[in-house]
Fold this sequence. Notes:
By secondary structure, the protein is an alpha/beta fold. 31% of the residues lie in helices and 22% in strands. The protein has helices at 72-82, 102-112, 135-141, 163-174, 187-200, 206-211, 214-231, 243-254, 272-279, 292-304, 340-350, 356-369, 399-402, and strands at 6-13, 18-27, 30-36, 44-55, 57-62, 85-90, 93-94, 97-98, 119-124, 145-149, 179-183, 234-237, 259-264, 309-311, 387-391, 395-396, 416-417, 420-426, 429-432. An eight-stranded parallel sheet has the order 5-6-9-10-11-12-13-14. It has a seven-stranded mixed sheet with strand order 3-2-1-4-15-18-19. Strands 7-8 form a two-stranded antiparallel ribbon. The N and C termini lie far apart (53 Å). The model has no long low-confidence stretch (mean pLDDT 96).
Amino acid sequence: MSDFDLVLSGNVVLSSRILEAGYVAVRDGKVAEVGQGPAPAARERHELGNALILPGAIDAQVHSLSQKDQEDFIWSTRSAAAGGVTTIVDMPYDEGNLVCSAEAVRKKVDHASPQARVDFALYGTIDPEEGAKRIPEQVEAGVAAFKFSTFGTDPKRFPRIPPGLLEECFAAIARTGLTAGVHNEDDEAVRAAMEKVKALGITDYRAHALSRPPLTELLATLQVYETGALTGADAHIVHCSLSRGYDIAASYRAQGFAASIECCIHYLTLDEENDVRRLGGKAKINPPIRPRAEVEALWRQVASGNVTLVSTDHVSWSENRKTNPDMLANASGVPGLEVMVPLFVKGALERGISLTWAAKLMAENPARHFRLDHVKGALTPGRDADITVLVPVEKTYDASASGNNVVGWSPYNGIKLPWTTAATYLRGKLAFDGTKVLSEPGTGKFVRPPQQIVVAS
């Protein structure tokens, strides 16, 4: 009788090294052993040859409920399972329910739990009219981080947090041990640039980047890090489209401050002069997609170790909200859960970047960032056996053909992926077999930082 429930053999990708002809052994839903050479016996054993065996990805930025009656967790977690993402961290800006209190957190957990096919964690935020007073209760309810915005997309659903209130929130969060993440666009500067674009009568694909030039992003980035330095909070930029932003983050870390920074997969894949020009509103994202030269500069930041996390900022807007010929009239954001991992692997291999960065930026670092590394983020004995298997089978991505997305469009349609997801395991159980999502709704669990994280008095 074997001691193990499951053993997978192949090239095991860890954050520190790649174990060629390695194996991962699973017992009771946990990683039990990782090694190299002949694999041990198990009740279920798969020899995967030259497949890549990675820790299940943690997508640090997902919007499952931005549009009512559209995606929801039933679909976002299905896309996640099909893409090798075993945990999503969902944003607090839900249409009709800003997650800004313990009650709102519990309501969202109760809503998501019967639907989720993979595990999920939650961001919290504040209602500007209430200030920071509900931050402690949200920590007790189990949020994994807090999210704010220096730009006001909507006064109720996605409000701007002015500088004084942001400082108050950061000070409160500094006492909790969690991270304060911020959408980094300067409100006044963006609105001034938008007015210029409108006055010039520019409405095509160029309008979006012109309405949010680099300085609008960099000014907000500096504000966030200076606020973190002042208050002692762990300050995080939730999406940076500019290489200069990663240099700024690195400079704050060099000064001894906690300054993390996140790169979305669209900034590492799409460019303005080709993709935004071709896709129009379907490539409208805040901050904007930048020119190809900036894309390549971001990959150099990955190779240099200046990127903390890679995520999707996934949101599945219905097509009618992404196809207005007036670029600025479209909703912002794109779906990406199903292809983040294969896209990152493709980009890294094309540039000679080690795949250890895939394990670090999409699993290990997010788990640590959200204080979930007691159970998630690594193929390490004792952690959840969340595993992604990629095989060298070329596939041209088509969101409508996969059947795992609530919308049939994607800005990544037509991209050839040299490695594709062949299996996803959630806590040792097969969630996706390469063709079909097997994980049933309700399989996913709410994951939270350890209960001993409390608010200091």
